[in-house]
Amino acid sequence: MSIFHSNFLRDISSLLNDADDFNVIINVGKYENIKEFRAHSVILRARCPYFKAALSNGWITKQNDMIMFTKPNITPTVFEMVLKYIYTGELDLTNQLGSILDLLVASDELLLEELFTHVQEYLIEKQTTWVQENFDLILPIAFKLTECKKLQDYCLDSICANPQPFITSKKFRSLDKNILYGLLKRDDFSVEEGVIWDYLIKWGIKQTPGLGKKNSDRIKWSNSNYQALKKTLNQFIPLIRFTEFSSSEYFDKIRPYKAIIPINIYDEIEEYYFKNVQPKTMNLTPRKKIIESNLIKPKLANIITNWIERKGKKDLLNKYKFELIYRSSQDGLNINTFRTKCNEQGQCLVLVKHSNSTKIYGGYNPLCFTNTIMQYYNTTESFIFSFENSKDIQNMKISRVNNNYTLHENYNDGFNFLNTLYMNGQQIYFDNHGYYDENISNVLNPYLGTNFIPEEIEVFKIITI
């Protein structure tokens, strides 16, 4: 059998613009933005399930033997892309980000499953940055479309990978309640519970009639104001992990809002904080952290992932999993334990906390720790870094290797970044042998050339997801 698809597709495609035997006129758009499109019912019915039903004899309206059809809820720009896809099987999304969400909605309405799937995948795979900068635009649309599960999941996963910028943005206060509920019930929405509570209250105030800018001071609230806020937040209160608050947070954040919390839940909260009795009805598990570190916050882990990939200001946490394999405070501060826990684990992140400073020091091993007595390994990807404290993202410093010999394996040491940052006995040593770039002095400042006993060491196995 001979197949001549190429010429067939070319000839069918030419009907879109050149044929004079069309029998359908479609008026698309509304108000000042209306455009007339001409098409062939046989092609529309064959290629589009929606038109197969809509152009049936029972639905159509004819004028001068021409089928007349209107689609006011689709813009001419979007319908032109749809029509080209129907006739040619082609779609060019270059410079179409302004219309791409409308295209997603239109392809869902027109039952164009292949096009609908492609637009989702294009957003996820080709427009990652744009998606992450426009969650407020994408989420309401994605959650209105029941078949848009892939894009829904991607958005929620991306938010949970680095939720702080999202929850603290002003746009968060206008978030749809169903989307907010979907986020708060997730175990991997890794924001400190006190922060979640703060912004839930702010969201509730904006969403509650009678509150907001003109009545945001709770000291001036009436009982009816509290009851209105309680009604707004009723479905969300059971999703808060109240046992994750510190005692001071309980006093400062929970207690003032006693009136909006159901009595049975508040009684359990009080019993927990005053008598250390575990709640019976509030049995939610703690939220999973992106990185189970006592030394750094997730936003610093995101900086490290950017250094690993040599990128800037991208949300890369959803590509990595940080698995804690050694913590000196619980496993013991000695080389043998370090080696038992960390050898042959693959690429690792080392964090060191100085006992008399807020600074965090660390190093990235892109290979692995081994049992070798003494060996140098070639890699250009290792680096040493420091943070001023566990939260600061303004003064972080990094020094990359300036030659290939960056890892020194010596079983007599714990970790050893070529005798520049290393663990020997119970001491951490700093030195500058010229193996790292000129920023090494800033990274290791102010302890260059000295040694100290660390307050804490953490080592994480880095897994690429």
TrEMBL record:
Ranges for the TLDc domain?
A: 294-463
Q: Which domain of life is it from?
A: Eukaryota
Domain named BTB is located at 22-95
Report the Gene3D superfamilies cross-referenced here.
1.25.40.420, Potassium Channel Kv1.1, Chain A
Q: Which Pfam family, any one, appears in the UniProt record?
A: BACK
Protein name (Swiss-Prot/TrEMBL): Serine-enriched protein
